[in-house]
Design brief:
This protein has 108 residues and is mostly helical. Helix content is 57%, strand content 0%. Helix 2 (16-23) crosses helix 3, helix 2 (16-23) runs antiparallel to helix 5 and helix 4 (46-54) packs across helix 5.
């Protein structure tokens, strides 16, 4: 129940009717997608995971992401929802280092 309450608080920070209109889905679907994006923030492709679990198209999820701060905002969403996200799984400079040197940046 805490996750649901936190998701509703998070969704309250955005103009849900405007986001829903731009994405072409209901406000309730936007709330669901925001919660799923936060849940899967540490995954390789959180937008696809959210699409797979919500029935909302990836194109619509990308429209939502563009309205809420892009993929970089997902870690913040997860923290607001009280989810444990492995920051090393979010990518970043460690992914760009050659020869497995990303392990030095918390990647394995």
């Amino acid at each position: 129940m805490d996750l649901l309450n936190n998701a509703l608080k998070l969704a309250g920070q955005f103009d849900l009717p405007a986001i829903a209109d731009k994405a072409g889905i209901s406000q309730e679907q936007v709330q669901t997608v925001l919660g799923l994006l936060a849940k899967f923030a540490g995954h390789a492709d959180p937008a696809q995971e959210a699409a797979d679990h919500s029935g909302v198209s990836r194109h619509q999820i990308e429209a939502i992401l563009s309205e809420v701060g892009g993929p970089d905002a997902l870690g913040q969403f997860a923290q607001l929802l009280g989810l444990d996200v492995n920051p090393g799984a979010l990518g970043g400079i460690g992914d760009m280092l050659p020869g497995g040197l990303g392990g030095l940046m918390g990647k394995k």
